Amino acid sequence: MIFEIDNVELYFDDKPILKAAYVKAETGKVTGLLGRNGSGKSSLLKILFGTLKPKYKLLRIDKKPVLKRFYKTGRVAMLPQFPLLSPTILVEKAFKLYNIDFGDFSSIFSEMNSVKHQKIRDLSGGQQRIIEIYLVLKRNADIVLLDEPFAQLSPLMIEKFSEIIQQQKQQKAIIITDHRYEAILDVSDDIYLFQHKQTTLVHSAKELVQMGYLPG
Ligand SMILES: Nc1ncnc2c1ncn2[C@@H]1O[C@H](COP(=O)(O)OP(=O)(O)OP(=O)(O)O)[C@@H](O)[C@H]1O
User: What is the ipTM of this complex?
Assistant: First the structure.
């Protein structure tokens, strides 16, 4: 399945943020988005998900236009940059709500075994994020959007999630953005750089240096 978001034109209060931006994602691949702060990565994810309305955009699945807000189709799962779960929900209840097995989770993240009966608000920021990323990644969806999943995670957790992302991409398209660019370069099959209000497909870290995103 091929997902394309094309000709994205976004303004906030007459200020242009994106002009003719394009991103393609497909089942079996991870698409990484890189770019400086404020370059429009989160906005593009929200536009794709359907919670932010731009001046113009065209969303296509396998070349056919999708006119509905995408989240209403039930085919997309999104991890926003900010907390997803209610602070008062019990961890085991959150897993039930998402229809995901806690046992499978705790066999990968054994250090999280003890939090099953706790409320989300009683976990550390990183522990909360681990649960959120896992639930969104494992959710039954055709495409998963991850906005800064790695920001609060220790290196070992990033490695574990990179493995889960590789497993999950077998059945899904995944789009991910994060400032941990080494992790994004490792996990992604395709990379887009957000720059000058547009998106460019890049092929190497060297290109990212030449384009002024990475220090030389
Ligand atoms: N609701 C809003 N109202 C006005 N301006 C906004 C709004 N949301 C985002 N912006 C502006 O749009 C631009 C793009 O923001 P966005 O969050 O998409 O960038 P980003 O690339 O995800 O940044 P970061 O990497 O820092 O999270 C920024 O200049 C931001 O100030």
Answer: 0.98
